[in-house]
């Protein structure tokens, strides 16, 4: 399973960064995503975090993990509502790849229950938010071409960093 997770992570990172054999002419030589594709990726990230948080709530996690899952559903939902107003391209290849990655992670989490689920969910949140920060810094923020989108992505980056720190605290047992 770790090899499969690594492979899927590499696939998504290649898709998000525009690297790999299946490049379109516009993404060759490391050209950045356009703004609407970048927003599509962000929407896919948000959707994956909402889905994982809802799954955690359905699996009846308790205590701080439940509080974290509730927060992820609420805050990523709010972000997705704002992104929708900025015209994301949900059909862009990087957005589709990000959605596929999220669905694969969700399938892995669905197979778990109890403490094993809670531990895997928190680990996934650390990984996902780390990857989201990298994507924001390397691709999504640089793709922004309007002040409103730049501001939204910079604000999102701040929230994602906060989500990551909270997940790391949960993972280490600090609350």
TrEMBL record:
Residue ranges of domain DUF4142 in the record: 38-170
Keyword line: Signal
Pfam families membership: DUF4142 (PF13628)
Signal peptide start and end residues: 1-21
InterPro entries assigned: DUF4142 (IPR025419), Ferritin-like (IPR012347)
Protein name: DUF4142 domain-containing protein
Organism (species): Xanthomonas boreopolis
